[in-house]
Design brief:
It contains 6 helices and 8 strands. The protein has helices at residues 3-8, 11-26, 46-62, 69-84, 149-159, 185-188, and strands spanning 38-42, 88-94, 99-104, 119-125, 141-144, 166-169, 179-180, 183-184. The chain has a 4-stranded mixed beta sheet with strand order 1-4-3-2, sandwiched between helices. The protein is globular, with a radius of gyration of 18 Å.
């Protein structure tokens, strides 16, 4: 999430971003392979983070989102476990049990396991380049808001193929396409017959 891009965005664009993020995250309880599990704020502005959480909570209310009891328990166990491990410095629950925000001790403390529906690790970094060292091969999708195409291309180029197969705007993380996980599915699932006389 670009803080600068958030500041530039209109209120309607911010609301659309929160709804898109909801769609990416809550349709499959964050269990889809491309569902967002962490939010990295690029730039400094705690007010932007608070506004985003408020808008996301509004979407949860409007959609009448219900957190199943098992998910509510999973969320708390994961959150407090990450805090006990020293990876998390603060925990905040909003919208009942609909949204849990875990403030990471640093971006490198990113938990790689699923923490429960509506649980997001968060951290602040100065630039997208600060995220390059923590990206691993299994990091498939980056869902983003507020960055220019040039910024995103520079980020992906710096990764040099180590991870991230897709970069999409909020609301498109679950959109399936012919290119998935970096593979052209039609080519991968097609059999080519060659004849040489």
């Amino acid at each position: 999430m670009s803080v600068e891009g958030w500041r530039r965005a209109s209120h309607a664009e911010r609301q659309a971003a929160a709804e898109g993020f909801y769609n990416d995250s809550y349709w499959f309880d964050q269990a889809a392979c491309s569902s967002p599990r962490a939010v990295f704020w690029v730039g400094e502005d705690p007010g932007a983070e608070e506004e985003f959480r408020t808008l996301l909570a509004d979407v949860l209310k409007a959609k009448q989102h219900v957190t199943e009891p098992a998910m509510a328990v999973q969320k708390r166990v994961s959150a407090y476990g990450a805090a006990a491990d020293g990876a998390v410095t603060a925990i905040e629950f909003d919208s009942g049990d609909g949204l849990a925000t875990l403030e990471l001790a640093g971006p490198e403390a990113l938990p790689r396991e699923w923490l429960g529906a509506g649980t997001f690790a968060t951290a602040r970094v100065g630039s997208l380049a600060d995220l390059v060292p923590i990206v691993v091969r299994k990091d498939q999708t980056v869902s983003q808001f507020g960055f220019t195409e040039a910024e995103l291309i520079e980020f992906v180029t710096a990764l040099a193929g180590r991870g991230v197969d897709r970069v999409v705007p909020f609301g498109s993380a679950l959109t399936f396409s012919a290119i998935w996980d970096g593979y052209d599915l039609l080519a991968e699932f097609s059999r080519r017959v060659t004849v040489k006389a």
